[in-house]
Amino acid sequence: MAHIKLENIRKSFGAFEVIKGVDMEIRPGEFMVFVGPSGCGKSTLLRLISGLEDATGGDLLFDGERVNDLVPSKRGIAMVFQSYALYPHMTVFENMAFGLKLSGADAGQLKARVTEAARMLQIDHLLERLPRQLSGGQRQRVAIGRAITRNPRVFLFDEPLSNLDAALRVSTRIEIARLHKKMNDTTMVYVTHDQVEAMTLADRICVLRDGKVEQIGTPLELYEQPNSTFVAGFIGSPKMNLLNGEKAGAYSCHTLGIRSEHLEIDESGRWEGRVIHSENLGSDTYVYADAGAEEPVVIRQQGNRPVAPDTAIRFSPMEAHLHRFDESGLRLR
Amino acid sequence: MAIAAESLMAAPERGISELRRQRQRAAMRFLLPMIVALLVVAAWPLMRTIYFSFTNTTLSNLDGGEWVGLGNYLNWRTLSSGRVIYRGVLADPQWWNAVWNTVCFTVISVSLETVFGVVVALVLNAEFRGRALVRAAVLIPWAIPTIVSAKMWGWMLNDQFGIINDMALSLGLISQKIAWTANPDTAMAAVIMVDVWKTTPFVALLTLAALQTVPREVYEATRIDGINPIKVFFRVTLPLIRPAILVAVIFRTLDALRMFDLVYVLTPNSAATRTMSTLARENLIDFDKFGYGSAQSTLLFLIIAIFVVAYLKLGRLDLSGEARR
Amino acid sequence: MKLLSNIAFYLLVGVIVLISVFPFYYAVLTSFETGTAIFQVNYLPVSFDFANYWSVLGARNFPRSILNSVFIATLTVAFALVLAVTAAYALSRVRFKGRGAVLLGILAVSMFPQIAVLSGLFELVRFLGIFNTPWAMIMSYTIFTLPFTVWVLTTFMRELPVELEEAAIVDGASPWVIITQVFLPLLWPAIVTTGLLAFIGAWNEFLFALTFTASETTRTVPVAIALLSGASEFEIPWGTIMAASVIVTVPIVALVLIFQRKIVSGLTAGSVKG
Description:
The complex is a heterotrimer of chains A (333), B (325) and C (274).
Chain A: E1 4-13, E2 16-26, E3 31-35, H1 42-50, E4 57-62, E5 65-66, E6 77-80, H2 92-102, H3 107-120, H4 136-149, E7 154-158, H5 166-182, E8 187-192, H6 195-201, E9 204-209, E10 212-217, H7 219-224, H8 229-234, E11 241-243, H9 246-249, E12 255-258, E13 263-265, E14 271-280, E15 284-290, E16 297-302, E17 312-317, E18 323-325
Helix pairs in contact in A: 2-3, 2-4, 3-4
Chain B: H1 2-8, H2 18-53, E1 75-78, E2 84-87, H3 93-125, H4 131-143, H5 146-156, H6 163-170, H7 184-211, H8 216-225, H9 229-257, H10 261-266, H11 276-286, H12 290-315
Helix pairs in contact in B: 2-12, 3-7, 3-9, 4-7, 7-9, 11-12
Chain C: H1 2-31, H2 51-58, H3 62-93, H4 99-110, H5 114-128, H6 134-158, H7 162-170, H8 175-204, H9 207-212, H10 221-226, H11 238-258, H12 260-271
């Protein structure tokens, strides 16, 4: 269980500043997700916490202790890499035992911890195999198992699902969520560019942009009360509709935001548009309409209700769910 | 991934972490034995050779040499008659003969090896039955030790019983048996022939490796366009494999400039093939002129050093792998 | 037209194979001939007489020279590899000021003409009292085996994935542990190849062996063969020389053919820079 505090953390590579002053706290036992577009610095921030990268400025504190000068293995962390990074010549057992062995644990202790972790991840029947004999999903579980046996106070995930196919991604995601519940005293920091993973796994999400924190909050907070157009457009799929011009002006703001599920097609609707395309997913239908904005407006209808292209429609927003933003993209209170 | 690589191997900066410090300390420890070893077996002996070149040391009395400055390189005496006699390596016709031999050998040999090597590589790059066997066969000259090659060819080129003379006579190419290795007119040709035979595989292998990185689609496109294969080679293939060929040429040139073994065994005591290396050794060991031989060795080193520096400057090699990582 | 170019192609292939293999074939042929047979030019085998081989193997010191060569080459390579593995790690995985200079230095040393260090080494060998012993060769061969092994191993080590090393760091591995327990098992094919190439280089070496040995019992194979002499000053024992050559060459050729692919990749790795 570790309380992590970042105080004005900065990181430059030569002349190029990647992290531009980040302040945040990660609560003990929390599952924190760093999310953002590529180049925003989320991986760098994770690596700073791990110690593989050193901060150019600022302080990193674990449970009040400054860890800037500690090597990774002394910080009590464990890391799951995107490419699993399993030792190819060692068996699953040896892979999972490696860190413990290096720290001098005796054989009995080693065996106990490894088998326990293996059982938790349901890979105990694979202990004598080599990584090349495993499937992608199994390898990822071994990588997670290797991290578990280290009994860390902080668990770090660097885009662990990126290398898996879609179906595997979903099942492994569920595994990770279950893991978090089982190990609820371990702080977990998770990096992803996929906002679905963020929404489903996180206790709190930190949205990063250009080396700075855009917003931190629970998934629901970010979804329902985004502080900026950036966060509004990043969280939630499909993207929140962001409208400028007249429609925004009517609500005295520069940009008006409304999610697709908060628009209703209605003959007496206030706004009008022409349907471009309908996406019928069976459970929902997304209607794309040209309403005079830069991008098509997306309207969600429940069930199987496509609208033919080129149809003229009228639709209205649910007033309670409107978001107003000023010219610089910040939320208007 | 790029970030990862950058960090683990990034240059030191202020606020350097314990991890980086630990790694750099380890790196220094790891490099030390190698550096010491090279200082002992390479740097120190080189310094001593250069030192000896400034003395009149003899082999029989290694410790008793006196300093003669540049005397070994060039010195002159004015006789009472007013005539000036020049002595020293730079005034020694034998030295310049050796330089000429070495340069001739290098230029001709490396040119031939390059041309033949590229041809062989092109052949090996084509797909045909038995290609693996041909590649194995081509490796054989490279695998055979130089001394053994020299002896084998020495036997084949033997004037009395050699098979080369026999073949050439029966094919009507020559009218009488030639003493290939003894005759000064043919000795150099013999040496070049054996050297080309032995080292063409090396050039061929390097070129082949480069050829195999050229994507097949390139050739298929030229086939569809119906371009003349010779043009394809010169306009398309050659530019792509030029870097590898250049590397092979550099290595071979350096090896040719310092060549010793082949000449010593195949055409010993032949003025027509004496190279700088064999001449220097002769002086060092056979003639007891240790200082003089050291001067010749030093000059050879300088020649090679100039060549290497010129090549590095012109080629702008990326040695530390900076560009790659 | 296609037929003509095909024939021309196979003709070329035939010529290449013939030129490559014939000298060795002829050496084998000659090695089985004795007496007057040698003094006739035979293109095809006429006799299968092992006399030359017995005389070579029975000669006091030829088998001894083979042992010398094996001993020297093995120790030289082993020594170089031990130093090279750790040096290669430092040069390929850790960035530090002066790394480029060290690499340049190593390259420069490998380009030294051996004659240029002969005087200095001669003095050193005498000073250390190792003249006419295998140690003179083992020490002096380092000047080319060490740069070569370092260079090739550095090239190979650069290719290992960074994340593997990072995982080991997180697990608490020191650089030494990383080298020995994570990298070495992955690199051993490269090490075998590098070792083999270095072994061949050491086996073939002539100048230092010629200069630093003074008696028949300490010679290496190349020197022994070069100095093989017959009963009288004018008689060159070609049959014996060919037999000796074959004995020495067959194992090397066999090794090279077996490890063909690895050798080619090792050679090209050692030569490809930047």
